[in-house]
Amino acid sequence: MLHRLYAPASTGLFICGAIAAIGSLSGYFNSRLEYCDAATSPCTRVAISIDVAPPQTAQDAIVLPGNGKMRLSLGLVAIALLAGGYVVSGLEVEKLSAIARQEEIDAELEEKRQAIVADEEEKKLVLAADIRYKDFEQELLDGYALLLLENNPELAEQILADKPLAQIEQTVTATATIEAASTANAQDSPDTVQDTISPIVVDTTALSSLIAAGTRAIDGLIDTSQSLIFLGTPGAGKSVSLGVVVGRKKKRVGDRLRLYAIAMKNDGFSGAVVARLNADSNQCYDILLEVITELRKRAAMSKSERGEYCDENPVILILDDFMSQQKLLSSSLSKKIVRYPEESGAYQKISLGDAFNAAMAEIIFNGRELNVAGYVGTQSSNIDDLKFLSSKGGRAGVILMYQAFRNVTKNQGNYEIISQAIANQHVIADVKERERMRGVFPQAKALSVQEQRPMILSSNADTGEFILGIVPDMRDEYREYERLYNGADDEVANFAWTIRKVSQFYPDTTAESLFSEICNRVNDGMSQREIIRTVLKCGENKQHPTRSYSVHGKTLFNWLVENYDNGELEAMLKNDGNQ
């Protein structure tokens, strides 16, 4: 700021110095001769310079002494001012030169930074493409192995005679793996998780250990006040894991837990105050402001008062489907401007998207001690997409929960998000820890596919290490929390044609037992049409409240499959022509 005063200061000094110099040289302070000129004006005295000869008619001439000291002083002042102006102008020139040099250095550094970023992005793309290719290659080889068994029934019979059914998939996978290893021509990248080099031997001990690790990873989230980031592809079970964590907290703390949620779908989140960004962005911003206001209120409390209050009143803000929210904030809501409060009480006008990121960053960095946490569910595999975690300190302030799942029935999903996380030094900084995860990953992937349960990678281990395991089946627990806190009760909440309870239709049974009976009939070879007519009694008994086969029967059947099936029944009914 000081260099901005150099130019006006030097100009002022030069002007004052010039005035002083003119005054000292003007002769005003020299000795003068005063006289009366009888020829012109006898009564008026005239003063002239001592160096000028008076006219012959001059009378009563008197010499008036000059003020040499004043002239000398003005001369010295003029010299000082001019010298000061010169010095200040020199400082201005030097400062401008320094600024120009700094700008050149900044431009050069920015150019180098852009080059480094571009190089890193290129490496990421190459690594991601290599991982996707390897997953595709593995799936292709698995398909060839299964086709070989289908075309050679005698081979399948021989395998069945020698091994239990659970080991058949292991044999097929091992065969495909050996073939992949024999046809590989290039060395794999050291940062890529390898899970296809050697056959994976699956054992019950490993399965129990991995499920225990997954259970420990979920259990470790209940008491923490840190913010949680759930990362995973669609269908990987993020919503169930998040719902169970929130449900357990709600069950433990009760109504003292203040839950808020900003989502894209009409979900309950264990009784949270919910707003949908794609329906009412103003309501979403109100929720954001309420959480930030509460956080700052806690920060302003005295330490003695703050500790007890925060411990007794936890706050959680859930941002579900965060990447879809970000796309909406950067497109149709990009021009929405809000008044975001500063801690001083002033307001600044920023975009709604910047307000989301600013609020989340404040929660991440300051919320842990104040018991205010953010739970974010995102489909992105890149942690850099979360702008509020742009720094290393931001990533250290949250618990990262990666989930991946390959649904063999629907032929969708992969484990790329976890393999990339294990290979990413920005996620797992320790080299030995990354190597340890690489050793566990192939076995965990094989068991995840075999058991049809999601794989989980968590940064919440007590020892500072990561946890890699298999998520236990928590769907019943998740549905129970939905029933308890969202008012689902035992009624068929998703029926379009009724809101009455299942017990009103089938007074001697429950929805679970109905589904169990359906599974038994499918195993007996009964078609879906016959199940609907006999087990559900739709289309036969005209007095039954679900008498319509096409409307009531199919709706009830599909609802039971969607809410109680783990994928097995859907696979058995896949080729049913009546479905």
UniProtKB/TrEMBL annotation:
What keywords does the record list, in alphabetical order? Membrane, Transmembrane, Transmembrane helix
Transmembrane intervals: 6-25, 72-91
Q: What is this protein called?
A: DNA segregation ATPase FtsK/SpoIIIE
The organism's taxonomic lineage, starting at the top: Bacteria, Bacillati, Cyanobacteriota, Cyanophyceae, Nostocales
Lineage: superkingdom = Bacteria
